[in-house]
């Protein structure tokens, strides 16, 4: 944060400042541009757009939803694109999207503060005062805008649980965001902590490469296949109630997987679609891990990690096992609350949208959020259209009666 004694810097004026050049920020900028709002600027901390896909995702990642649910506004994936896009193809798509819609993005700009000044602008509407640091030069930059769009992501920062003794573990410990491939893990005893999508897929990747793989799964989870989940998405598109989709999805899952609890993966009481719509939890899309669990290639340890002593990990159920390496697939968190100075109820204490979908995207004084309601790429699509529609309407000169 710049000190009060820092020299005055003239503020650059824009209609809209968008924080974050992931898919959400790019989609908002493109939709604004298509509605004739040219003065929008995206500020991005990293040195590329779509950095989650370029820098923080493992090599074998493919999108979990079919391409029709994984496109941004005005840019469907072509017929010859694979149904489930590989990570790099989606990253390339985002690069192409930014160029195609002439997105103005300023890279290596970290937003450190954004506050609404009701007196600024001289037209009675006030302005958002945004302070960023140019990470290349260290210089402080000021921006002023009537509208501020928070698109800084649900997954901005790695969440690493505090486990006594972990710091002294003699082997490699990495977060899923650093994991790229199983190279060097062949024959090693590796513990993956966390049974979400990343953890289950990384466990599959490791076991396929010959690592002796265990996965610590402390919570209940819904295992689905891509195909089953796409049936659910299609039904949702036809406004079929969530409880009916739940019943159908669970029936199909029972046929495909049998009783997953027999292998340590207990299902929650609430159905998978209702869970997705009403909570931050995603179902886990099986990429082949379950077959490896059944065959014993991946061992499920159904308890939280409690402590580490030397290379031995102790679990909450009292079991202890030695490992050579640990991958923490323990999730991420939003960092919005560190820089956004606003108490209008748009963003909750966890840095995500405070109000449930579909009331989540618009706050007070020209503040919006995109991609913060746990609805993935399709959520970015919807948010961008809503936000750009609203801003362009507010910027439209009023008709004289
Ligand atoms: C491994 C993984 C796989 C996933 N797979 C799927 C999938 O298959 N399908 C799906 O729909 N969803 C998937 N998701 C969910 C996915 O995170 C979201 O769909 C998506 O990344 C959200 O995009 P975003 O633009 O909102 O956020 P991000 O992609 O996180 O982009 C936010 C950007 O904001 C920047 N930023 C943050 N703070 C600041 C700041 N203070 N100043 C400047 N810049 C800042 C960050 O550098 C980042 O580039 C996956 C997530 C992960 C982690």
Structural notes for this entry:
It comes from Urochloa decumbens. It is an enzyme of class 1 (oxidoreductase). The chain contains 10 helices and 20 strands. It has helices at residues 23-34, 51-55, 87-100, 197-208, 226-237, 242-257, 272-278, 289-295, 336-339, 376-395; strands at residues 11-19, 40-43, 105-106, 109-117, 127-134, 140-150, 157-158, 172-175, 189-193, 212-216, 223-224, 284-285, 298-301, 305-309, 312-315, 320-322, 325-328, 332-333, 340-341, 367-369. It is α/β, with parallel strands linked by helices. 27% of the residues lie in helices and 22% in strands. Helix 1 (23-34) packs parallel to helix 10 (376-395), helix 5 runs antiparallel to helix 6 (242-257) and helix 6 crosses helix 7 (272-278). The mean pLDDT is 95. Strand 14 (305-309) and strand 15 (312-315) form a beta hairpin. The strands form 5 sheets. Strands 1, 2, 3, 4, 5, 6, 19 and 20 form an 8-stranded mixed sheet that branches. The radius of gyration is 23 Å and the shape is globular. It starts with 10 loop residues before the first strand and ends in a 6-residue tail after the last helix. 41% of the residues are buried. Flavin-adenine dinucleotide binds next to helix 1, helix 2, strand 4 and helix 10.
Brief overview:
The protein is of the alpha/beta class and about 400 residues long. Helices cover about 25% and strands about 20% of the residues. It has helices at about 25-35, 50-55, 85-100, 195-210, 225-235, 240-255, 270-280, 290-295, 335-340, 375-395, and strands at about 10-20, 40-45, 105, 110-115, 125-135, 140-150, 155-160, 170-175, 190-195, 210-215, 225, 285, 300, 305-310, 310-315, 320, 325-330, 330-335, 340, 365-370.
């Amino acid at each position: 944060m710049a000190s009060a004694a820092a020299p005055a810097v003239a503020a650059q004026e824009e209609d809209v400042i968008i924080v974050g050049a992931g898919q959400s920020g790019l989609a908002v900028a493109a939709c604004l541009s298509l509605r004739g709002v040219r003065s929008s600027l995206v500020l991005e901390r990293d040195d590329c757009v779509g950095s989650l896909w370029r820098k923080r995702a493992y090599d074998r990642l493919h999108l979990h939803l079919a391409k029709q649910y994984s496109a941004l506004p005005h840019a469907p994936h072509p017929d010859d694109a694979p149904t489930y896009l590989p990570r790099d193809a989606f990253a390339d798509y985002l690069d192409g999207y930014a160029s195609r819609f002439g997105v103005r993005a300023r890279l290596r700009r970290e937003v450190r503060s954004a506050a609404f000044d009701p007196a600024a602008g001289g037209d009675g509407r006030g302005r958002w005062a945004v302070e960023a640091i140019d990470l290349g030069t260290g210089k402080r930059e000021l921006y002023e805008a009537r509208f501020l769009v928070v698109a800084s992501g649900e997954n901005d920062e790695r969440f690493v649980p505090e486990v006594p003794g972990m710091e002294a573990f003699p082997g490699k410990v990495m977060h899923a965001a650093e994991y790229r491939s199983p190279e060097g893990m062949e024959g090693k005893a590796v513990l993956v902590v966390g049974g979400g999508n990343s953890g289950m897929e990384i466990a599959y990747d490791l076991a396929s490469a010959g690592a002796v793989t265990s996965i610590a799964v402390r919570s209940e989870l819904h295992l689905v296949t891509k195909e089953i989940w796409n049936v659910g998405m299609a039904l949702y598109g036809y406004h079929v109630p969530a409880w009916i989709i739940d019943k159908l999805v669970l029936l199909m899952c029972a046929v495909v997987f049998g009783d997953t609890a027999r292998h340590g993966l207990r299902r929650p009481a609430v159905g998978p679609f209702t869970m997705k719509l009403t909570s931050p939890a995603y179902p886990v899309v099986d990429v082949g891990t379950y077959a490896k669990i059944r065959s014993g290639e991946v061992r499920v340890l159904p308890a939280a990690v409690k402590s580490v002593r030397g290379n031995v990990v102790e679990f909450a159920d009292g079991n202890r096992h030695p490992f050579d390496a640990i991958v923490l697939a323990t999730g991420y968190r939003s960092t919005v609350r560190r820089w956004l100075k606003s108490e209008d109820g748009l963003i909750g204490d966890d840095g995500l949208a405070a109000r449930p979908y579909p009331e989540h995207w618009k706050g007070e004084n020209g503040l919006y959020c995109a991609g913060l309601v746990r609805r993935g790429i399709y959520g970015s699509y919807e948010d961008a259209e809503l936000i750009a529609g609203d801003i362009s309407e507010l910027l439209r000169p009023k008709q004289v009666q």
